[in-house]
Amino acid sequence: MSSSTPPIVEFRGASKHFTVKSGTVKAVDDVSLAINPGEIFGVIGYSGAGKSTLVRMINALEPATSGTVVVDGHDLSQLGESALRGLRQEIGMIFQQFNLLQSRTVARNVEYPLEVAGVPRAQRRRRVDELLEFVGLTDKKKAFPSQLSGGQKQRVGIARALATNPKILLADESTSALDPETTRDVLDLLARVNRDLGVTIVVITHEMEVVKQICDRVAVMEFGKVVEEGTAYQVFSHPEHPATRRFVATAIKDKPDADTLARLRSRHSEHLITVTVHEDGGHGRRITDALHDHNVRGGIVYGGISEIKQRPFGSLTWGLEGAAADIQGVIDELRRYTTVVDLGTAAHPVDGFGYGADAAFQPAQQAQPVQPAQQAQQAGASTSTQTQILGGDQK
Ligand code: ADP
User: Fold this and answer.
1) 124-129: long-range pairs with CB below 8 Å, 24+
2) Which residue of 88, 89, 200, 254 has the smallest Cβ count within 10 Å?
3) What is the pLDDT of residues 200-220, one digit of tens each?
């Protein structure tokens, strides 16, 4: 896509405020954001951050209180009801709870938006067959929603959302009710919708799996604002905002938690450091070179590498042996290109992750300020992971 291609969705200083008894809720607060045609864009953040409201502003289910939302070249605030109805046919939507019509068969659920759009019957039937084949449900054509699994229901939801050939598909927590394997299948299908049909997809999610598997770019929301934005890889390999750091820490289990760290300390007397692994090809080599140059011995004691859109990312915890000044030399050198959390030794522990009393030793440095516990708890995050910090030099 050329850089001159205009965004398919653009928020310009857009806000959505709700007036409630206790005052004003700034559900979306002065957001500027551009979504490019053909990409899979993730809107992430904990419950209550404003994700659903932001995405519902794209099809004007929530009109902006102030600012502008432009979709496919149209300023939504300038469109009358009939023009809005036309534009909404270009925007499909799928939901966490599928929202299927229980009294209609699979085929008739998919047919529904075509009926509403006034498409002739023969054409509708052809389109339904085509869509069911695309989502792999031809054999369930006559089944009712109650006879389907969760994954199959979401496939029907996707087929229905695609019926009118939309340019944009909005997916609101579309895999949150599904088990991990079914989630992967549905995400594969969404990737195919994007790749084969060229549909721009905006996914709202609090699940890292979704981001890792399909998102090209992401925006992280907190308290109605977009606090971080970029390619999925960039945002998760170099999380800058505390909300993003928390999200990454809870989702990628590559760093030892407080209990694991205590176990590692009981088994390893060496100096422990956790090093973030990036896709730069030279990571392993750089570490071994740094160890060699500073006359330090080292081995991996814990870690994990996962993928964000097929690009490796994670962290490795090393046990280092050598003179304290030499080990510091290794840490300083590695920090020139990646994040290093210094955990000290079992005899002289450093609370690099900010686990505090959980890890049964005194913190050696101040933990970063944490967000209200309530928000993270709503999303199921534990308070100990909230304080997890990545020390060292951020790029
Ligand atoms: P998320 O999708 O990230 O969970 P939402 O967009 O649903 O967040 O909600 C953002 C904030 O706006 C929340 O505080 C929510 O309670 C509030 N909110 C959403 N819709 C309404 C509404 N119709 N009336 C009043 N408050 C609302």
Assistant:
1) 127/163, 128/159, 128/163
2) 89
3) 999 998 888 888 889 999 999
- Please name the residue that has the structure tokens 């971080």: 228
- Using the mean position of ligand 1's atoms as its centre, give its distance from the Cα of residue 378 in Å: 14
Sequence-distant contacts of 265-270: CB under 8 A, at least 24 apart: 265/346, 265/349, 266/346, 267/301, 268/301, 268/319, 268/346, 269/345, 269/346, 269/347, 270/298, 270/301, 270/319, 270/320, 270/321, 270/345
Share of the chain above pLDDT 90, in %: 64
Residue 167, token pair as written in the block: 């340019």
Mutation choice for ligand 1 from 28, 53, 62, 170, CB with most ligand atoms inside 8 A: 53
Q: Topology of 1-90+169-178+197-237 in CATH? A: Rossmann fold (3.40.50)
What spacing in Å lies between the alpha carbon of 198 and ligand 1's midpoint?
Answer: 31
Q: Copy the structure tokens of residue 49.
A: 């951050």
Cα three-residue angle 379-380-382, rounded to 5 degrees: 120
Say which DSSP state 89 is in: T
Distance 173 CA to ligand 1 centre (A): 15
Q: Are 42 and 218 in contact (CB under 8 A)?
A: yes
Is 326 within 8 Å of 297 (Cβ atoms)? Answer: no
| Structure-token match 């299948």, residue found | 185
Does CATH number 3.30.70.260 belong to domain 251-386?
yes
Most confident of the following: 2-11, 227-236, 303-312: 227-236
Domain boundaries defined on the chain: 1-90+169-178+197-237, 251-386
Q: Give one DSSP letter per residue of 280-318, joined into a string.
A: SS-HHHHHHHHHHHTT-EEEEEEEEEEEETTEEEEEEEE
CA of 190 to the centre of ligand 1 (A): 26
* CA separation, residue 178 to residues 105, 155, 158 (Å): 21, 12, 14
Give the DSSP letter of residue 144: -
pLDDT, tens digit (0-9, with 9 covering 90-100), for 231-278: 998 888 778 898 888 877 776 677 888 888 999 999 999 999 999 887
